[in-house]
C-alpha cells in the first residue's frame, strides 16, 4: 500500500477526548450505581475515606479504601506493563488501553444482573468498583505517558483552571492567552460533562451495572483499534516513528 493511500490517522486529541468522556461515564456508574465511591478521581476517595474513618456522615470507609488500593495496584502494574512493552518497541498506548478495556469488561461481567444501588456497597459492588479502579489506575499511567497538555482524561480541574486563566477573563499568557489552547481545554471539560451526563442518563434507565459498563469498554477498545496504525509513542511526545 502506498503512503498516499493509507487511512487517515485520527487526531490524538480526539482519541483522548473520547477517553475523557469514558471517565465521566464510568464515574457516573460507580458513584450512582455502586457508591458512593470514585474509580478514577481518587481525590474524592481520599476524602470519602477520611469522612468514613471519622464516622462523619453516611459515607462508609470500606468502598473508598478498596478503590484506592485497587487504583494503586493498577497504576503500579500499568507503569511496569507499558515500560516493558515500550522497551520492546511495541505500542504501549494500545497495550495500556487494551488492558483497561479487559478490566472494564471484567467489571461488567462481575456486575451482570446487578441492579444499580446507591448506598453501602455489598460484595459484588466492591468487586466491580475494584476492577474499574484497576482499569483507571492503568489509564492514569497511559495519560501521563502521553502527556498531552489540557487533556489528562481522568480529571478536569487543571484543564478548567488553565482554560479560565488563558481566557479573556484571566488574560494570563502563562496559560496560553491569545492562542487556541483554550479549545483543547474547553473540549476536555465538555467531554467529561458529556460522559457524566450519558452515564447518569443510563443509570436512570434501570439497566443492570453490567449493561451500564459495556459502552465504556467498547469505546476504550475503539480508541485502541483506532491507534493501531499510529507510529510508536514515547513519553513526552505524541508519536515518533
Give an overview of the whole structure.
The chain has 241 residues and is mainly alpha-helical. The chain is 64% helix and 0% strand. Helix 1 runs antiparallel to helix 5 (123-146) and helix 1 packs parallel to helix 7 (181-204). The longest helix has 26 residues, at 62-87. It is globular, with a radius of gyration of 18 Å. The two termini are 18 Å apart.
Throw out a few tags for this protein:
disordered C terminus; mainly alpha; disordered N terminus; 241 residues
Helix content: 55-70%
Question: Secondary-structure element sequence?
Answer: HHHHHHHH
How many helices does DSSP assign?
8
Strand content range = under 5%
Q: Rg to the nearest angstrom?
A: 18 Å
- Oligomeric state, counting identical vs distinct chains: single chain
Overall shape: it is: globular
Number of strands: 0
Give the integer mean of the pLDDT values: 87
Q: N-to-C terminal Cα separation, in Å?
A: 18 Å
What does this entry show, briefly?
With 241 residues, the protein is an all-alpha fold. Helix content is 64%, strand content 0%. The protein has helices spanning 12-34, 42-53, 62-87, 92-110, 123-146, 157-165, 181-204, 209-226.
Chain-wise SSE layout:
Elements: H1 12-34, H2 42-53, H3 62-87, H4 92-110, H5 123-146, H6 157-165, H7 181-204, H8 209-226
